[in-house]
Amino acid sequence: MKKGSLFVVSAPSGCGKGTILGEVFKENNAYYSVSCTTRSPREGEKDGVHYHFITKETFKDLISDDGFLEYAQYSDNFYGTPKAPVVEKLSQGIDVILEIEPQGAFQVKKSCDFANLIFILPPSVGELKRRLNKRGTEKQEVIQKRVDAAAKEIEASVDYDFVIMNDDLDPAIADFKSIIEYVKSGNAKENSKFSPKNENIKQMIKGVLENA
Ligand code: 5GP
Question: Among the four residues 39, 62, 186, 193, which has the most C-beta atoms within 10 Å?
């Protein structure tokens, strides 16, 4: 049986990644990996749906049991992808989507070189801060920490396979869909117009970082 494709998607929080993925994969039976995290649930988040909310002790036990495909520390909390469901779904021919930050994405790339790493850029670092403030779920100091982390993540996007920008939702969804088609047709990642090896994409990343 043909293995499923693995899509690893990163975007600083507040980039609209959830909305894009919801649209892109709504008619597709892809499996969304539910991560484990040691952070507290935000309002409206459900255990087992948005995350498995677990203690630091349980997280450490899972590390010792080799239960994670990857894990990372981010903003004082730990996040990890449970390994077993990902391996199972891929072997059943089902596409798998991971929404994780870059440290984790590069770990996945190391163990699964067939993974497709996709980065969604905000229009600018300044705009990202405005969006996080508008969401209003976090305190100022937490927002500033996330903005600083976002700038670091954006720098890492040059090592992804594909980079798109969510300036306008519809074009971003269309770009994402065309990347999936591109991958599914068996094309070489580095030849894609969304590859950061491409000069336009390099300039786009630079612009986002400069526009704070
Ligand atoms: P948030 O706290 O906003 O839900 O997530 C913070 C960051 O952690 C986001 O960039 C999100 O993509 C990332 N993240 C979520 N789950 C995982 C995971 O399992 N592994 C890693 N490495 N990052 C994750």
Answer: 62
